Amino acid sequence: MKPFDYVRPRDLAEALALGSEPGTAYLAGGTNLLDLMKIGVARPDRIVDIGRLPGLAGLDWREDGGVRIGALVKNADLAYDARFQRTFPSVAEALLSGASAQLRNAATVGGNLLQRPRCPYFQDLASACNRRAPESGCDALGGETRRHAVLGWSEACIAVNPSDFCVPMAALDAVVEVQGPGGAREIALEDLHRLPGQTPERETALEPSELIVAVRLPGQAAAVARHSRYLKVRERTSYAFAVVSAAAGLELGDGAIRSARLALGGVAAKPWRAREAEAVLAGGEPSEARFADAARAALAEARPSGENAYKIELARRLIVRVLQQALAGAPETLPALPGSPLAPAFGNRHAA
What we know:
Blueprint: E1 5-7, H1 12-19, E2 24-27, H2 33-38, E3 46-49, E4 59-61, E5 67-70, H3 75-79, H4 82-87, H5 89-96, H6 101-106, H7 109-113, H8 120-123, H9 166-171, E6 175-180, E7 183-188, H10 189-192, E8 211-217, E9 228-233, E10 244-253, E11 256-265, E12 272-273, H11 275-281, H12 288-298, H13 310-328
Parallel strand pairs: 1-3, 2-3
Antiparallel strand pairs: 4-5, 5-8, 6-7, 6-8, 9-10, 10-11, 11-12
């Protein structure tokens, strides 16, 4: 690991001032950054430890039923908050299916939003990777691509975003609050992550030294609370990154779908909001045929980036499954395997 300076600021203003220096990285839970530093992918000159900054580790419930989540809230604390589970069950499912209990106790909400790719070519210093070294090429193209993107990819990069948490958050119109040297601003979570285009090294919409301070879920998102689910397909029935995942929410009334929320994970460099599918669902009667039509609409622009054509059909089938489960209703208690299509019957509470 490259030697680095370590500083712990007293407040947000000091953190932003320190973060403006070139070669600086912010550290919160460290569950992603430290791993990348150990293998030489991340090589900061200075670490600014923001893990104890005041005012960034709380939940603030709003009068409209929405919630503001501080960037330093731990994944475990958020997932097991009783009110949060009731109001946003798909997000709790995603958090509990995303990592081991040990990692959830350390990882933070803000860090989860900024996870780096798990593409093996990104993590292998001997491989060409445009994200890690701009204009060096992409060895993933023509390589082992079963886990790579089928939507929004380019010839410069075919990596996918690894976050479970971001998928339901994108579906629920979450908003990210950011602070930087230029002041405060907000970014729709759906727009936080960038598609690769010809500049895959620019992974997010954040400007240099900007810091995520909170993420908000609007009150309108609670309208789908009773009928929202998150599912993921993984290569082993344990805490693994998604091959494909899906988050769905349905607002029902008078035997019809008033509105729908749908997003996919594991298929693109960002959580993929399937608005075309939402349009197919809205206003119609909930049925397997309509769900299948929505699934086809969601993947209409998908194309393999190598040996991963199976992902397209897998995503279609997962969309139908998650919509069926959303229609049936959110569980009173989280299943023993949150996020898994193979989860046993509801009522078996997940063990922390």
